[in-house]
């Protein structure tokens, strides 16, 4: 995922610092190290994922920070050369929180830094309907859905096959943002060479996309 963007931005990762927003337990860390990044940091809202990353990550230069889900508190300003995030922003439930993260990315990147951020531009009809259902009615809607879909009867409910994960639905089916709105916001924040790129891994849905760019 990174190499085409690194080439496009003429960014050499050797000896640089990278921040992975929504890192989980650090599944991308070995790849970052192979590309030549010298310091690899990850921040995630899940304390359990951060703990697993600290215990299991095989890359000694990896560092993990427990985030608060609203900003990049705990990350120094103008410290990083590259900021990366994949399949994370699509789960943020509120637009204002998402916009705040973009401002935070601008804060933590140093001069000449670059970013590569992944978004969802729209929401499938089924997901939009489910997201609009009040939480109090969710069990009833779930039962109706499973009765209307014989293949689902007797099968465990999972986030992947039914869009009914545990907890509040909006923490999974987050905000969808049109690509041009993202581009305008990034440009307003002072980023340069802002571009919107399709995500080839999701080429069949036409919904997910990358936003890339650099700091002056």
Describe, in plain words, how this protein is organized in 3D.
- This protein has 216 residues and is α/β, with parallel strands linked by helices.
- 33% of the residues lie in helices and 22% in strands.
- It has helices at 2-9, 29-35, 47-56, 95-108, 125-132, 138-148, 159-162, 179-188; strands at residues 17-21, 39-44, 62-66, 80-85, 109-120, 192-198, 208-214.
- The chain has a 7-stranded mixed sheet with strand order 3-2-1-4-5-7-6, with helices on both faces.
- It is globular.
- Structural class by sheet pairing and helices: alpha/beta
CATH-defined topology of the largest domain: Rossmann fold
Task: Determine the number of helices (DSSP H or I, runs of at least 4 residues).
Answer: 8
Q: Could you name the ranges where pLDDT drops below 50 across 5 or more consecutive residues?
A: 157-165
Q: C-alpha Rg, in Å?
A: 18 Å
Q: Name the CATH architecture of the largest domain.
A: 3-Layer(aba) Sandwich
**What is the CATH superfamily classification of the largest domain?**
Vaccinia Virus protein VP39
Number of domains: 2
H-E string: HEHEHEEHEHHHHEE
């Amino acid at each position: 995922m990174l190499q085409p963007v690194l080439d496009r931005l003429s960014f050499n990762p050797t000896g640089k610092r990278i921040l992975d927003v929504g890192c989980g337990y650090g599944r991308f860390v070995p790849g970052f190290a192979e590309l030549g990044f010298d310091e690899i940091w990850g921040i995630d809202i899940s304390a359990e994922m951060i703990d697993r990353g600290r215990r299991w990550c095989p890359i000694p230069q990896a560092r993990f920070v427990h985030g608060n889900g609203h900003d990049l508190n705990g990350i120094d300003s103008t410290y990083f050369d590259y900021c990366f995030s994949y399949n994370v922003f699509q789960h943020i439930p509120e637009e204002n929180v998402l916009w705040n993260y973009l401002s935070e990315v601008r804060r933590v990147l140093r001069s000449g830094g670059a970013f590569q951020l992944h978004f969802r531009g729209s929401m499938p009809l089924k997901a939009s309907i489910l997201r609009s259902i009040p939480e109090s009615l969710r069990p009833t809607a779930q039962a109706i859905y499973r009765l209307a879909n014989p293949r689902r009867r007797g099968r465990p409910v999972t986030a992947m096959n039914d869009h009914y994960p545990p907890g509040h639905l909006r923490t999974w089916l987050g905000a969808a943002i049109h690509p041009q709105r993202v581009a305008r916001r990034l440009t307003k924040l002072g980023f340069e060479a802002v571009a919107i790129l399709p995500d080839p891994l999701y080429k069949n849905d036409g919904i997910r996309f990358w936003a890339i760019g650099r700091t002056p």
